[in-house]
Amino acid sequence: MSQVGMDTVVESAAPEAGEPSAQILGRSPWELFWRRFRSDRVALVALAFIVFLVLIAIAAPVIADHVNHHGPNQLNTDLTTAIGLPAVGPSKAYWFGVDTVGRDVFVRTMYGARTSLLVAFIATGLSVVLGTILGTLAGFFGGWVDTVVSRVIDIVLSLPILLLAIGIAAACSITAKGCFGGLIQPGISLVVAIIALFSWPYIGRIVRGQVLSLREKEFVEAARAQGFTSAGIMFREILPNLAAPIIVYTTLIVPSNIIFEASLSFLGVGIPPTTPSWGRMISDAANGQLYTAAWWMLLAPGIALVLTTLAFNLVGDGLRDALDPRMGG
């Protein structure tokens, strides 16, 4: 009954001589999606890069042990000068050089991918779930529910997000022993909570607008006529038709959250110094303009951050075009 199942395209092949009728071929919506998406070579390359990055992040300990036989926080002062500058640049032994305390930049860049992807995926998942639930309730029921959710969204979007995030991170620092009675501890969990707290209104507003349109469709009215409850209509009829915009927006919000985490790490809040992060690595390189003498400290995490955010944006654009029913296919 849902509109999703009504998007199948039927093609008619030309009948050959002697054949009584033409062959009928049907394509499901997901077959149409994959046909459009695989024709976008740029999006496929970006998706391949993301998969490669995820594999690198998962296998970082194995690769680090195989290449250099040490971890991301192993210090080696023999690789620095008397004034604390890196003495070893990119070389056969240290592919991306070392930092000011002799740590391998290549190993820390790999581990930084783990931090960025872990924070971005978990925070994005939480914000999408929360935004979808509240947006669906607001759009479907309307009235005071819509008013309350919409006003909360407006309030959160009006806040100075970065300044407030810095304040929350500082308040939940190690000296404060976490927030909410220790429920949220300093570190990755704190950064995830901050990003999810400020990210959900965007998906909530999009979902609300979609639900306001979908609840007036004929298939929803037909479900009501058959006696479906409000919960049944939302789960069986509304949510399946929200899959496309949610998938697209999720891929577009991931790079924003990666930048958010990098910004917090650059400012020295959230991620502890012992946890490798691209933002903190860039901050270390910018400290005292070290990048003028050790350019590799800035180059490796900077390129990794740019390529990762670009890849997610390109995949998001490809998904948006492939899921758009107005596109040819």
Secondary structure: elements and pairs:
Blueprint (H helix, E strand, L loop, with lengths): L8 E4 L11 E4 L1 H10 L2 H18 L1 H8 L37 H37 L1 H16 L2 H11 L16 H27 L3 H8 L4 H9 L4 H24 L11 H9 L9 H28 L6
Antiparallel strand pairs: 1-2
Helix pairs in contact: 1-12, 2-4, 2-12, 3-4, 4-5, 4-7, 4-10, 4-12, 5-7, 6-7, 7-10, 8-9, 10-11, 10-12, 11-12
User: Overall 3D geometry?
Assistant: globular
How helix-rich are the residues, as a percent range? 55-70%
Q: Going across the biggest sheet, name each strand in turn.
A: 1-2
N-C termini distance: 23 Å
| Overall mean confidence score, pLDDT | 81
Q: Helix- and strand-based class?
A: mainly alpha
Low-confidence stretches: 5-14
Report the count of strand segments: 2
**Main beta-sheet annotation:** 2 strands, antiparallel
Radius of gyration: 25 Å
Count of helical stretches: 12
CATH topology of the largest domain: MetI-like fold
Write a structural description:
There is one protein chain. The protein has 329 residues and is mainly alpha-helical. The protein has 2 domains: 36 residues, no CATH class; 280 residues, MetI-like fold (Orthogonal Bundle). It contains 12 helices and 2 strands. It has a two-stranded antiparallel sheet with strand order 1-2. Helix 7 packs antiparallel against helix 10. It is globular.
